[in-house]
Give the backbone structure.
Amino acid sequence: MNVSRRTMIAGSLAAGALAAAGAARAAVRPAKPLVLGHRGCSALRPEHTLGSYARAIADGADFIEPDLVGTKDGKLVARHENNIAETTDVAAHPEFADRKATKVIDGIEQTGWFTEDFTFDELRTLRARERLTGDGMRTESHGYDGMFRIVSFAEIIDFAAAESAARGRTIGLIPEIKHSTYFAGIGLPSEDRFVKEVAASRFLDKAPLIVQSFEIANLKALRGVLGDRPNVQFMQLIDSDDQRPGDVIKAMGTLTYGQMMTPEGLADIAKYADWVAPWTRQLIPLDADGKLGVSTNVVAEAHRVGLLVGCYTFRPENQFLAADYRAEGAAPAARNVEGSVAEIRRYLSEGLDGFFTDDPALGRRAVDGDG
């Protein structure tokens, strides 16, 4: 680690935001669409565990995704939300019963146990479990309930480095910084810690790193700090059309994700990000029968302004597929491999540059044309 890298950390993220005022560098389209392991291989292993990441890598994921939330003592850990009621066995720990709370996160009230109320060592006493439940839902993943513990971002970086060395191919990381404005508001800003973790890693000096967020201000600030690194890109995530980013809500602004998806909005995103990533149905919506309808042409418009395009999330269970790709007579929770691969390929025909999938083996098959 050289001195200039450590000196970079000391610079404020506010200054970084000012440095991001210019246009983002042009992003080069990958030779093949990137298979992004959504929370690892969350269709077959409890999400955000080393078991899930290991399976994703073994199944051909180009990148693995850690969603990052903060702990009481300032660590970044991999959980989809800071509310861990659904993804851990915390409710079975009587020593933590009094930490159950109701909070408002990005304008939504929820009740549970929250990472910011635990130290990292306390979180390590918990065990992860499959989030999705229901008759026959992800039975293989449920078979691993209780086997894996919560891991830190630093541990995931080291794990990706070890897997890259062992397999002879570089595994990219695509972390999402969750609820940035919320965590800053409680005195636990995620971005400073994130920059320190990145700068401390020799692996991330060169390994591909795509930083993603549903918010805007943190991407602009991080681009100002990390944007000079040729291995780092930035991805603007897009939620439902009528929703607003968390930082916009906090500032009492009116900008919606729907407005961000217009030609003018995409051009604005291209000033600070390399990627835009809406959810699948914003690219090809469902029609009245639940089948895939007419393309919105967002991919073409995003490419026109220089953005790469990803999307989220392809899931292999019958109930998550468009009606024209479901297996007739199969249970909603049944795995539908052929239907999932076919649906991914329909979206790939739009010109996607990457996509998130709960089952990277199926994503790899869709991209490589096997079967």
Q: What stands out?
A: The longest helix spans residues 153-167. The domain at 3-82+150-368 is CATH 3.20.20.190 (TIM Barrel).
